[in-house]
Amino acid sequence: MIECKKFIFDVDATLVDTQAVIDNIWKKWCETVGVSYVDMSQYIHGRKIEETLHCISPSYACDVQVEKVKSIALSEMTKAQAISNAHSFISNLSPNAWGIATSGPKKVATTSLLASGFDLPKVMIWAEDVLKGKPDPEPFIKAAHALNVIPSECVAFEDSPSGVLSAKRAGCFTVALLTSHREDELKDADLIVQGFGHLTVIKNHNGSYCLAAS
Question: What NCBIfam families does UniProt report for this protein, alphabetically (predicted)?
Answer without folding.
Answer: HAD-SF-IA-v3
